[in-house]
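Annotated sample (chain length 393).
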Amino acid sequence: MTDTVLVVNAGSSSIKVELFAADAALTSLLSGQIEAIGLAPRLALRDAAGTTVAEDAWGLGEGPRDHRAALAAIGTALARVAGQHRIVAIGHRVVHGGATLAAPVVIDPAIRAELAALAPLAPLHQPHNLAGIDAMAELHPGVMQVACFDTAFHRGHPWVADTFALPRALWRRGIRRYGFHGLSYAYIAMRLAEVAPEIARGRVVVAHLGNGASMCAIRDGRSIDSTMGFTALDGLPMGTRSGQLDPGVVLHLLTAEGYDAPALTRLLYHESGLKGLSGLSSDMRALERAGTAEAQEAIAYFVYRIRKELGALTAALGGLDALVFTAGIGENSAAIRAAVCEGMGWLGIALDAGANARGETVLSTPASRVRVLRIPTDEERMIALETLRLLRA
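Output written by the structure step:
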């Protein structure tokens, strides 16, 4: 039997899992997901070579109807194809750790209760994370479970970076900027220390550009500021999320346009961003292919906001030594990377067009004062690393 660490990333309508060998290399053994939970679920698991080793699909309204049932289906599939592997620890992505949970923790009843109390701060994510924890406790009783937080990497921010100009009583009640995508940023900081240690000790802006998008200012491996704030709605425009918005717009929608809280939630989380601007799609690949005026304007706004936030985060750092692109768009769209860096010579950025087109690790020219890099992120591996560390401790 091989000892393994299972990583669970439970989203609103899908659950990703990855199984790692509990060894120094943390070898990935199996990975996969179940999608469209409660609609027409689809389950697929792949081995390390990318070969599909388990696959199931259900019709509309059939199959797993909730996260517990979906995780049970994943557990059955894992048992079918990975019977020789023994799960010794389970790591979970948990979106919100609040103001106090600044590092991964072993989940016990007190921690479980604390995470549940944070659900109002992340109502679209936290309940699903908790469902994953509860389901795994039932499927693997007695196995250590670890919560790894999207907010934890940002807990060392200076006060001015995390506060709003609101009455102090609201700060004490948790109304503050938390920042998200911390697992991705922690992984990039770790990888940067391996591939370019001299840069990792300096001033770095990481652009996590995907369906969810944000940017983070990092100095000497620590988060200084982030574009996301109280919720994962803030900052950059995303696939379906609005990004930064004048709060007066929200007040106007509530008082003059007939929106209530549920309708406003749908608008800002599911109908805005690239999808809302383009009227076409939340997928950057589809927008790049479409070529319509609306698609081009959506892309232009996305790029404009990235460039604007790059300037702001550079100011927070007091200068810039490196810009790192990561996540789905950041890793795969040479056109977006080029557009972000175009005309940025004033900041010290000189992009190598050939290296960028080829998707190399170093994208800047030798003469560029600011290094530009492309580093794939791996949140699941980061969770596995932290889970294994706590298991050994």
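Annotation: Residues 40 and 59 are 5 Å apart (CA to CA).
Annotation: The first helix runs from residue 67 to 81.
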